[in-house]
Amino acid sequence: MTRACRKWVLAHPLETDGIIRAENLAMVEEALPEPGEGQALVRTRLINLHSRTRLKMTQMSAGETDLANYGLAEVVASRDPLLPVGAHLHWQLGWQDYQIVSRDEKPIGYALPTEAVRALNQTQAPMNYVLRPEIAPGWPPDTVMHVFGTSGTTALLGLRRCGPVTPQVRVLVAAASGSVGSLAAQIAKAKGAYVVGLAGGADRCAWVRETLGIDDCIDYRAPDLDQRLRSAFPDGIDLFCDGVGGSLTATVAPLIARGGRLFAFGSSESFYSGGTAAARPANGLRGAFGITPEIEALCGDRSIRIEAWIVFDHYDERLSLEDELAGMLRAGTLRPVTDVTRGFENLPQAAIRMYSRPHAGKVQVDFDG
Ligand SMILES: NC(=O)c1ccc[n+]([C@@H]2O[C@H](COP(=O)([O-])OP(=O)(O)OC[C@H]3O[C@@H](n4cnc5c(N)ncnc54)[C@H](OP(=O)(O)O)[C@@H]3O)[C@@H](O)[C@H]2O)c1
Question: Are 171 and 165 in contact (CB under 8 A)?
């Protein structure tokens, strides 16, 4: 009997309201492909869903799957000795349970890796690599893709580059209920810092305080947000971890202490604000992360260092980041926060639910159920 590959494809474009509905996606079946020379056939175990999904769906054509998800896959047949059967891969994967992969694949949606990252990963895409056995299958799939994937490595690298994070350092973490924020807040707390998070609503703030064990959490929707921040940080914020951008960055930047650090790494405000069109700011990546010319000038005047990059650019540090994260997991000072939808057939529900908050941590689909 010929085995089949199941695939979720775009059936109908999104309406102009940008809401994902079940009828936008359809499941199709295809014959299982055979790997050619230099290729491997992988079975996907779990994927991370990104808040950019809605935007990506507007850029897909009917019949296409989204091939840009970071996921965990296991090699089941191979004609590349560097991708042996049984190896676990961190790869850009589609909404499909089997897929042909090759180390020559270029990144989807990102720039080519640096020479150092290419040498480490032995691939042409910075996020495609073979995981070490102590990472996968050493840890469960959701932990691998949350802590050792882009969220954990971004959180730890950001704190390293904005460090040292010591008990004297006062840290504000935006989107503390989110995937990167929940880890950044825990790591900063584990290093002894005073840590305050931001989340949407009183219940969310209570959840953040209890789950992450940080000093406080403030509702970013509160009309007196500025005053609440000044009370929590009477001498200013030493380090602001900001994956939100937009108006939140503009509100917080003036409260960063002289000589402080702004770790700007994301744009959740635009991904969650509804609609499907992301305005392209004039100043590229920094602009997308909320760093307007005014904020550049303010930080320049007050000797505030800005760190703004994509974590893959620094993946030559990946192994050392993984080792430190594994140590914190073993010590119990870091716990993954994941929102896992079980079963490949439930993938559309996960994509729909992602935008009907609240969810906490990394939104994932475990294909095995
Ligand atoms: N630079 C890099 O290498 C890198 C790596 C990973 C991720 N990123 C980026 O970092 C950002 C965060 O990623 P993530 O995976 O952590 O996000 P996520 O899990 O989707 O978290 C989203 C969080 O953002 C909060 N939020 C949504 N809209 C908000 C608003 N208008 N103001 C304040 N908070 C808001 C939500 O809080 P409530 O639910 O409590 O309201 C939610 O917890 C994304 O833009 C992502 O692309 C960058």
Answer: yes
Q: What integer pLDDT is reported at residue 273 of this predicted model?
A: 83
* Minimum CA distance residue for ligand 1 atom 9: 266
The domain segmentation of the chain, as residue ranges, is 4-131+337-366, 150-311
CATH numeric code, 150-311: 3.40.50.720
Query: Taking the model in full, what pTM does it have?
Result: 0.96
DSSP assignment of 333-347: S----EEEEESGGGH
If one residue of 147, 180, 354, 363 were mutated to test the ligand 1 pocket, choosing by the most ligand atoms within 8 A of its CB, it would be 180
pLDDT tier at 79 (50, 70, 90 boundaries)?
A: very high
Take atom 41 of ligand 1 and give the residue whose Cα is closest.
Answer: 200
Please report, rounded to a whole number, the percentage of residues in the chain having pLDDT higher than 90: 91
How far is ligand 1, taken at its centre, from the CA of residue 219, in Å?
15
User: Ligand 1: which residue has its CA nearest to atom 29?
Assistant: 269
Fold of the 4-131+337-366 domain:
Quinone Oxidoreductase; Chain A, domain 1 (3.90.180)
Ligand 1 atom nearest the C-alpha of 361 is 19
Measure the CA–CA gap between 257 and 233, rounded to whole angstroms. Answer: 9
Whether 251 shows a pLDDT value over 80: the answer reads: yes
CB within 6 Å of ligand 1 — which residues? Answer: 51, 150-151, 154, 174-175, 177-181, 199-200, 204, 220, 243-244, 248, 265-269, 271-272, 310-311, 357-358
Going by alpha carbons, the residue nearest to atom 11 of ligand 1 is: 266
State residue 3's pLDDT score.
79
Instruction: Tell me the CA distances in angstroms from 70 to 115, 148, 362, one per residue in order.
Output: 21, 11, 12
Q: What is the pLDDT of residues 178-199, one digit of tens each?
A: 999 999 999 999 999 999 999 9
Q: Say how many Å lie between the CA of residue 1 and the centre of ligand 1.
A: 45
Residues 6+ apart with CB under 8 A from 302: 256, 258, 259, 260
Residues 288-311: what's their mean pLDDT? Answer: 97
